[in-house]
Amino acid sequence: MTTFSLRKVAILTFAVALLPCSLAAQKRVEIGAFVDYLDVSQTNTSNFGLGARFGYRLHHDVVMEGEVAYDYGLNFNEAYVNIVNGNLAAIERTSVGVTHGLFGPKVQPSHGFFRPFATFKAGFVDFRLSPGLLPYSNVVSTILGLRTSNLNAAIYPAGGIEGVLGPVGLRVEFGDEVYFNNGGHNNLRITFGPTVRF
């Protein structure tokens, strides 16, 4: 072989060796679905639902991620008190459902079979409550803040781990979804589901 041919073979071999690395580096998009659990502190309900995520890798260890989840309505006993004397006036069966949307960075190593991560997101929590006794002027709900302002700003610090095999992963996440309605309210949130990178 001539020197020219050996050079071509060497360059081709080097390019083929780098191909898997360059393909792995190009996996910038992450999508996922998850089962969502939210323990709402004000209503003392454990809401379950479904959600979806979309992320874009800005750096090999940083992903900007957005997510939306819908938690199905659950019934709970809503107490109403008399505004004149503060005595219990009524208890009504109420349904609460939750929609939340969050956006923020996720810090996670881009390599390895088990990848721990931390995230901090901000967004909104929207509570859907069934109609209540509010038309009665002499009673007020114990969760009046949620009834008068059901769309609330939220922050979400969380962490978890993801098991990864090729482009597919399985992720579990634990966090504190804090929404602001007459002060901050802490709520345990757990998500679990698959992710795909491409």
Can you characterise this structure?
By secondary structure, the protein is mostly beta strands. It has a single domain, classed as Porin (Beta Barrel). It has 2 helices and 11 strands, in the order H-E-E-E-E-E-E-H-E-E-E-E-E. The chain is elongated.
Throw out a few tags for this protein.
mainly beta, Porin, 11 strands, 198 residues, eight-stranded antiparallel β-barrel
- Rounded mean pLDDT is 86
Number of domain modules: 1
Written as H for each helix and E for each strand, in order along the chain, the element string is HEEEEEEHEEEEE
What is the CA-based Rg, rounded?
24 Å
Cα end-to-end separation: 40 Å
* Beta content: over 45%
CATH level-1 class? Mainly Beta
- Which CATH-level-2 architecture? Beta Barrel
Regarding quaternary structure, what we see is single chain
Helix percentage range: 10-25%
How would a textbook summarize the main sheet? 8 strands, antiparallel, barrel
Strand order of the largest sheet: 1-2-3-4-5-7-8-11
Low-confidence stretches: 18-25
By DSSP (H or I, 4+ residues per run), the number of helices equals: 2
Total beta strand runs: 11
SSE arrangement:
Elements: H1 3-25, E1 29-40, E2 45-59, E3 62-82, E4 88-107, E5 114-129, E6 139-141, H2 144-148, E7 151-165, E8 168-176, E9 178-180, E10 184-185, E11 188-197
Brief sketch in words of this structure:
The protein is mostly beta strands and 198 residues long.
